[in-house]
Amino acid sequence: MEPDIGTRYEVPRTAEFLRAGGYTRVALQFPDEMLKDAAAVARALRQELASGGGAVRVFVMADTAYNSCCVDEVGASHIDAQCVVHYGHACMSPTSNLPAFFVFGKAPLDVHACACSMLECSRKSNKHILVLYGLEYAYALVDLRRTFEEACKSDSCNPEVQYADVLCSVMSPSSNTTEENDGHGDLSVNSDLAALNNRCSIECSSSTHKYSLGGVTWNISVQEKMEDYLIFWIGQDDSAFANIVLTFNQCEIVRYDAIENQLSTDVSHLMKVLRRRYYLVEKAKDANIVGILVGTLGVAGYLHIIEQMKELIKAAGKKSYTLVMGRPNSAKLANFPECEVFVYVSCAQTALLDSKDFLAPVITPFEAVLAFSRGREWTGEYLLDFKDLITSEKQEVASATEEARFSFIKGAYMEDSHAQEDMEQSETSLALAEVTEKALSIQNQNNDAILYQGGAISSIDYLKARSYRGLTGEYEGPTPDSILVGRTGRAAGYNDEKT
Hints:
Elements: H1 3-8, H2 11-21, E1 25-29, H3 38-50, E2 57-61, H4 73-77, E3 83-87, E4 100-103, H5 111-124, E5 128-133, H6 141-155, E6 161-163, E7 165-166, E8 170-171, E9 180-181, E10 187-188, H7 191-196, E11 203-204, E12 208-213, E13 216-221, E14 229-234, H8 239-247, E15 252-257, E16 262-264, H9 268-285, E17 289-294, H10 302-315, E18 319-323, H11 330-333, E19 341-345, E20 362-363, H12 365-372, E21 405-407, E22 412-415, H13 421-425, H14 432-436, E23 440-443, E24 450-453, H15 459-464, E25 489-490, E26 493-494
Parallel strand pairs: 1-2, 1-3, 3-4, 5-6, 5-14, 14-15, 17-18, 17-19, 19-20, 22-24
Antiparallel strand pairs: 4-8, 7-13, 9-10, 11-12, 12-13, 15-16, 21-22, 23-24, 25-26
Helix pairs in contact: 2-3, 5-6, 9-12, 10-12
């Protein structure tokens, strides 16, 4: 076994986990950037397992169906794997069926330079420091803590610094998810899911709040708020960092770039993302046909949130269609032009899908709740993990007599379409004129407000209103002329042309 491979990919510890579980069919999941070492890791793991006896078959997985940060249970099921060893960056979303073992890797970190940057931040800010990090830097936290304490002693200062802990490195599947409401609107889930949950503020004891996000966990006193802390992030400007910034958008945040060994306090580009998300919420309110994109088939609770989104959309008087297409892109979504907005159900770190090049916006389940719940206002809170939204409460269907709402996109009042179930049965008998008449504009006497009503309320209505509906066997035009023989030869000189 190559020493570097065994250390970087924690081969002995992985083999110990597999022996303890008695697993004989193991799937190794690698992201694209680590795939070059996959053969060497698999070979080293087989050698380590062979020394302990027993036959273990190891399979390498790459090119996951959805996102490499999630455990690919679908790919593992194709080879009847009993567990998955996940390498590289992970979102730590709970699995549904298979146990998982995580090897985060060891990205290089200059511990001394990082400790000096933390000391510099403590001098400039009077807030307590909360150290969060990408999981690939978790191995260096012990050395970082010791180096920082030594730097503080030599500098004769004693700042209060708290370090987040890694949530877990072994994950067991959640057998069930129970939703209960404690009367305060918070979600309570079963013990094994709560231990692995990615959501924020999942526990609150008499003295502390427990937070968990992006695979790390920390506690703060109930007398304190997250705004009282300076968040010191160690890592790159990636999806994990965006998750932290958007979730704690009221906090002061500093990022230490471990590659460049420098501090960055500019998060304005992520604040622009937050403002755009608000625009997409307003745009989604005007949609009548909504597509639900399934962005995961392994994260625990994804079926619950899909059903909840269906109920929410139906209660808002809109039509929904569930689409499973793997990783979405503009070409795939263009096949569904009737959908005016898409709701993307995926893990927290891939929930923000950039849809600037798409024909229709793509929003998160949290943004869908804001858009389709009448009277719901955005308070600045932002949630990326859909498990924070799972509830057992049934959505009440909105009354058709509700007042029109004002659309900031169209600059006018809008009346939502409330489709009746018996309307779906009689859709085939609707004439094209009846469909187009639904797009009404009513102007009042003062010419200062317009009321928009209706639009296509299903894909069938949308198809009927189109001028071209594809090739069909029915031909409604005049009888075609007889077949004529065309010109023969090459374009440079047809046979009937004179040279």
